Amino acid sequence: MGNKRPLLAVALWLAVLALSAWQLARTRVIADLSAFLPPSATPTQQLLLEQVRSGVASRVLLVALGGAPAERLAAASGAFAAELRASGLFASVQNGGAEGLRADREALMEHRYALSPAAAERLGAQPLRAALESALGELGTHAGSGLRALLPRDPTGELRRVVERLPAAAPASRAGVWFSADGTRALLVAETVAGGYDAIGQERAIEAIRKSAKDLDLEVSGTGMFATAAREAIEREAWLLSLVSGSLVLLLMLRVYRRPRVVALCFVPVLSGMLVGAAAVSLAFGNVHAITLGFGATLIGEAVDYPSYACLNAAPGENLRSALARIWPTLRLAVATTALGGLTMLLSSFAGLAQLGLLSMIGVLAAGLVTRHVVPVLAGPGAIDARAFAVPPLAGLRRLAPLVWVLAVGAALLLYSRSSSLWEDDLAAMNPVPERLKAADRELRRELRAPDIRHLLVVRAPEREAALERAEALEGKLDELVRRGVIRGYELATGYLPSTAEQKRRLTALPEPSLLRANLEKALQGLPFRRGAFEPFLRDVEQARRRGPVDLRGTALGLKVETLVVRSGGEWAVLVPLHGVADARALAAEVPVLDLKAESERLLAGYRREALRLSALGMAAIVLALALGLRQARGVLQVVVPVALGLLLSAALLHLIGERLTVFHLIAMLLVMGIGLNYALFFDRAEDDPAGRRRGLFALIVTCATTLIAFGTLAWSANPVLHAIGLTVTVGAAAAFLVSAALARR
Prior knowledge:
Blueprint: H1 4-25, E1 29-30, H2 43-54, E2 60-66, H3 70-87, E3 90-94, H4 98-110, H5 112-115, H6 125-139, H7 144-150, H8 158-165, E4 172-174, E5 177-179, E6 186-192, H9 199-213, E7 217-222, H10 223-257, H11 260-285, E8 288-289, H12 290-295, H13 297-303, H14 305-313, H15 320-340, H16 343-346, H17 351-373, H18 375-379, H19 401-417, H20 419-422, H21 435-447, E9 455-461, H22 464-472, H23 475-483, E10 489-490, H24 493-496, H25 500-508, H26 513-524, H27 535-546, H28 556-564, E11 565-568, E12 571-579, H29 584-590, E13 593-595, H30 596-630, H31 633-656, H32 663-683, H33 690-715, H34 720-743
Parallel strand pairs: 1-8
Antiparallel strand pairs: 2-6, 2-7, 3-6, 4-5, 9-12, 9-13, 10-12, 11-12
Helix pairs in contact: 1-11, 3-9, 6-26, 9-10, 10-13, 10-33, 11-13, 11-14, 11-17, 13-33, 14-15, 14-33, 15-17, 15-30, 15-32, 19-31, 30-31, 30-32, 31-32, 31-34, 32-34, 33-34
């Protein structure tokens, strides 16, 4: 039976690997960055994050065409817009040209009496007479050609009044299309059918834009472009970082062992942990995030340590099974504490972090079990190595123990005095988009005159129409704030689309056909207009009285309304952006204003507090595991204190090098605790043989080096999640190693 047990372990290992590979073959790899956005805690935060993830604004792409004379760019803009409209990938494409605005003009003309606030007041005999006389004066001017076509349908100029009520901000125009202020780029705005975080749909839309641009210089910005660029960068980095860190660890281990077979054995737990961990994530979440795969590179530096501890602690001529049996009580505790280091991430409300936590915990546990039960079978009964490894002289580090305590006190005082600037609560710090794309986006928004919104009102109601009615009631108050200079302006959805109740009120006030005809006859007396010239006007007013609510779908105005009137959490909300806020305190005293920057900071601060609570839970679990394993309070303190001081020193060092700590740094600190406990446990491990102590010290040096290589590689990532985790663990692991060495009893 004893001979069958190792073979059974290998058979079970192979079966688990096969099932994991089968599960991963059916798994969808995603790059939805919203997985790393915090879930909402309040209705307002829920609304904001919903708009970031899937709101209309997230589907808008800003496009600039350049690299040709203005005349050619103007012509290309029209052809480009027509091609995109025909692709079926875009709900709307606007370039300022007549084709793009035709739907808007037709909708405004058709619904002008519902959209104009006082149209009925201008349909009496006297107002009609004044409007017709004014039109006669204009017909003889240069502007009369445009008026001549509209006058039979719109003698009171309601269309012009509706247009004048719309915000005037628009890009510069040349040859009838939008251009940058310097005339070097034609500008367009396209709304995709796919959601902003639908990476595949956005990729198709952006590919269509690139294809339609042909040989022109092209610049594209917007949420979809950011998501596509981030997805490409994440997938590229996930594989590149794994390859680089794996190669560097491989070179180091070949240099240490000089036997490829032993090195291959050390990588068996790594590959097993990554495969089983990723399969567990797939089973639990139904997908695997590309960042999770990138995080798998961290297992290379951690899981490769377990067989290394055994191989490097083996005496000359000793086989792996014997060495593992000797150090297993300490190694088992190291595996358990490292796995518990992922508990904070697993319990996090961030779906992306929960994936990282599950991968870490399952991967580390799988690697530990494979090291104990499979690797010795694969290694066979022969000796691991006949050499005695040379160890650098590190005994002098123990003399630095007083300095460690001095530095720890200084670090605590530094962090306490800088507590106000220690944490980063800006959502932009979590944005993996390269700075060049952010700069291009700011430039395009400036050219397109899109305002930078920070303050807004949110008007909520169970039904859409009720929300619009409540928003309409704010107009007088907002106008007063503009007059007093508290704000420069505002954007109200009911300026584009009044509530249905207000539309009905305006249309009901229109005169009956017989009365309107009589008013028109009186107004025309003595004027040189031919009889019947204004029949289209009479027909339009009568049709307006019978027409239903205004429908702006398929127009640029409809797109604008969709961005301002949104559904959230089972109710409707009207967003009212406020421009040029001069006095935020005075504004807050008048109306319930929402400061987006402050709200996002509160959101992240709340999840930082959650991470702190979960970190405390994780640390408590680790201490409990140590207490059960060591069974003596002094032993627990001897292991925990060096790691705690190492964490303190690493946090201070990160602050000194300019890192503002995020929730990702905080969670990485728990990984540091798990790794640092490995060092402290092995430094504190009882070993009477001097040669055994030297082997143990060499094992610690090598395993620390592999950890620094793997996480140091992550620190170079442009992705803020991977960068924060990689840098924190690199600094923290180095600090924990040095402090554990300085405070070691043996």
